[in-house]
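QUALITY CONTROL LOG
STEP: pairwise intake check
CHECKER ROLE: data steward
CRITERIA: each record must contain a sequence immediately followed by its structure tokens, with no blank fields

ENTRY 1 OF 2
RESULT FIELD BELOW
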Amino acid sequence: MSGSDGLRRAGGAAWALVGLALAAAVVGVVAAQVSLVLVAVTLALFPATLLEPVATWMRERGVPNAVTALVTLVAGLVVIGAVIGAMVPLVVAELPSLMGSAGEGLGEVLSWLRDGPLDLDVEGFEGLVGMAAERFGGAEAGGQVAGVAISAVEVVTGSLLLLVVLFFYLKDGDRLRKGLIATLPRGARERASRLLAGAWQTLGSYFRGQLLVALVDAVVIGVGLLLLGVPLALPLAVLIFFGGLFPIVGAIVTGTLVVLVALADAGLTSGLIALGLVVLVQQLESNVLQPLILGRAIALHPLVIVLSIVAGSLVMGILGAFLAVPVAAIIARTIEDLREDEEPDQQPGPHADPDGTGEPAGGERDVRNEDVLTVAATAAAAHREQPNG
């Protein structure tokens, strides 16, 4: 390849990258303008993965699609509403006590680091803690949170749109999928159908599995805190459950909160036992629950998970942190499926020579030449046996 050909190819690749960057920028601008729609369409996928098995069960028994979707949606709203209605008020009511106990526990840790055998200088860290307490711990916190939250009109509109999208996911999900695939060229439809099915399976397995893992973590740690006599065990268990929806990062944050509250409300011994309990549960989750429940759905390195959550939170806040891991898992699954499609068939043929010995597989002789000689000899013998005319 000449130098000019190399420069031409490098220039083409550079322009391709520029085109991709411009396309990504355009998509980002458009997405920002219709973010309300995109958020509703995306978030509706998560409850759809939970409700779709129920809808499928009803359809298999002859229930019309519209009735199936409506009944499933209402039942799901009742269950989810009951769970959230029971959990959220419990946390909100005890949130000031939780923050106070956590601050007190952190103060005890800092005092030990400053006055204990380590004799560390923690004045700078104490200043940061004080600033955070003044910013989020006072009576103005609610006003500050409300100032950065989405307006009530957008919340109501987005919630109603999410319910409408969820209804049609449950009613016409298969039809919507086929319609989306039909927009692609014919040669790409089969592969797109398999990739879409794999992405849906990954999303469903991840969300259902992560909910179950978070529930187990919350129950085990909550029971342990009750046995230790920690007064705020129930709201802490609720926070652990919601933190479980953010792998690794949520566990670190809620686990730290548990240890600080136990240290402040139940003493040093209970705080150390709580620390051991949190570490034990996290090891159980990483080495037993996640491989057993999630399996292939979240075959990601922990560093990838942490970076995905951080990047998602920087782009879209809490929503981005929530969506980051399933999006990363779907991308990883899609890349794996594409790589498998690109790999050539490595199965040896009937006369392959895998050992390089000149003999076919299995030690059998290549009898093709011998068959030719046998046929020729048989024909000659038959010709000799014919009577002379």
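ENTRY 2 OF 2
RESULT FIELD BELOW
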Amino acid sequence: MQRRVQKNPVLWYYGLTMAASLLLLVPHLLFGVILTPSFSLNQFGPTVGLLLFSLFLGSPAPVRSAFSRFKVKKLPGWGILAVSATAAILFACGKLLSVWGAPFARWGGRAGFYGGECLAMLTGCAAEEAGWRGFLLPELCKKHSLFAGSLTAGLLWGVWHLNFAGGLPGFLLFTASITANSVFLAWLFERSGGNLAVAVLAHFSFNLFSHLFLWNRLGIRAYLVEMILYGFVDLLLVGFDRKLFFARGRRMGMNFVNWLKESFAKSFAIGLDDKYSFIGKGFIFPNDQVKCAAIEKYAAGSGQKIDILNRTSPIRILVNGRDIYEVTLEFSGFRSQYYWLKCKKTGSVKQA
């Protein structure tokens, strides 16, 4: 089972997420609104799917990796940009819909109502983003560019909603608008250093300002306008940041040491935790030749130029012709039979 999950992680994760989300939808079908109109149990599907995926994988690494992306660093600046840009896009969408013949309608309620709705939206968005940007997007970007990964994640995210309120045309336009939004979210996520809190704020802002500016107007026309506006923003971002979007095999928000740790963990099909990259449990200790082969294998997809300077322990690596790292693999103890990778920067090469 673990080998099958490791071979097709995206397929397994998405299948488990869809199954969990459909099951979580059942209470709403039976009892209607729970707590507040914006609270949806199925929004927890991506997080539950991630927990199930880790269970089938036999490692807590995907869950730990996803939740470690919630950061305070860079949050104020990028968070303000995420909220203000989303507000501007949806405000423009509302104005265009008014011109198109769909008049503005106020999203009414008392202060307590707004507070409960915002809390429900924020909680649901965090639960979704832990899966979509916390796991799915970085997993897709291990093999694909950020642009291709964000489009794929957006398509899967849009389909997951199963929004057939406008029939098949509505479903297709809604999915297209969500896919366009996904490219914008991916740019925010990556430029903020892989900060999932920024993605949560952008997602929350999208839901909140959709209620404020598009209340009772969410339909085929709204989805079409959103698709056009987000598509225009995406074109600007892709044109401005082509190198970011089209570098293949990006490691989302990772420095070299974390990238190498995850690469080794993947090489030996074992999980990864916050401090160590566990290489094996009861496995034969990998020799220097095996370690060098693993480094070279994953260097090919890292987007970094890596030269192995010393192929015997401690292995020394030159990264991008500048930084020198020392890699060792150690045995943790007789009973636990774990191995871990240690990687530290030991120097730099002066450029001529």
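INTAKE CHECK: passed for both entries
DESCRIPTIVE NOTE, ENTRY 2: Residues 111-140 form the longest helix (30 residues).
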